[in-house]
């Protein structure tokens, strides 16, 4: 009989790296939430190469280390090299399952866990952290400075690092470094080396559209609304042209700079999509999520168009979508055809566009270039008809109706 001692630290995911020394081999780093799943995977791996598991024991420590001990037979004790090769071959055959469950289809260009550092890897000695701006489930956002520039610093919390969080973090770095557009938040750099992992982007002093509308209680006039919507469409046109699906388009992920230019942000769940490819992940936020995504049906970039329709409704009404429902109730309703109530005083062209964008059939939804053309045409018409500029909100103590400065 052989005793195999398999140790791993419950940290963040990387591909397993196995070496065998006197029947002890290491299994990289895995998330704490996957520890029990790891035990099952290891058991399956040993069975896959023909080993008989006689006993199995699991030990864990408070600092994140685990040790799985298997007593097995079915392999010559002296043939450690052969066992090592058999284990490596088994892992290669089952590579997908070792990285945890994945919703990605073959159509997605997925990211390897390790990106080689480049000019975007920051020198942390030059990063000065300021106060916290916001806090999320897996990380915190800070105001800081880097090389004299105001920046936003998204820091992952070490205690929440797991395979999925790490993958989203690296995916966001991968996408941000590939994009550059006026209406996409500008990437400055990242730190992908322990002990602290962070993404640095331009500082958006205007905050999110969600806060602007729902927390600051601004009510947008038509000109302002259209300018914001055009900004979002321009950013989304750029992303879709490059095969990037955002997958979590909502007002909380639409940020404003000091000139109130709106930019698309937060690419943690965004993905590249190859031509003609589809995906089936349930990804995003329920109140803004397309029905085909909720239903785990194949979807493409038209899922972003549906989310944009909900954003448009939000900007028109200054309300949170389905505000009398829980997110899960809203999701069930959307699956059954529920949509937000149509606002009575909205421009008829906006209402028509909004309803086409949230069609249940994705093929009936317009693409972002067509949406952009319609919005720009309507904006031009509205500006020509009014010839007015409403008071800047910075000088409006009640913060009710407003128009941001024009921008290019």
Automatic annotation (TrEMBL):
Could you say which EC number(s) this protein's record lists?
Answer: 2.7.11.1
For this protein, what is any one GO molecular function term? Answer: ATP binding
State the family named in the UniProt similarity comment for this chain.
Belongs to the protein kinase superfamily. TKL Ser/Thr protein kinase family. RAF subfamily.
Pfam families from the UniProt entry: PK_Tyr_Ser-Thr
Note down the stretches annotated as region Disordered: 385-408
Where do Polar residues bias regions lie? Answer: 386-396
Which species expresses this protein natively?
Panicum virgatum (Blackwell switchgrass)
Q: Which reaction does it catalyse?
A: L-seryl-[protein] + ATP = O-phospho-L-seryl-[protein] + ADP + H(+); L-threonyl-[protein] + ATP = O-phospho-L-threonyl-[protein] + ADP + H(+)
Give the UniProt keywords, A-Z: ATP-binding, Kinase, Nucleotide-binding, Serine/threonine-protein kinase, Transferase
* UniProt protein name: non-specific serine/threonine protein kinase
- Keyword Iron-sulfur assigned to the entry: answer is no
Residues in domain Protein kinase?
A: 127-379
Query: InterPro entries per the record?
Result: ACT-like_dom_sf, Kinase-like_dom_sf, Prot_kinase_dom, Ser-Thr/Tyr_kinase_cat_dom, Ser/Thr_kinase_AS, Ser/Thr_Kinases-Pseudokinases
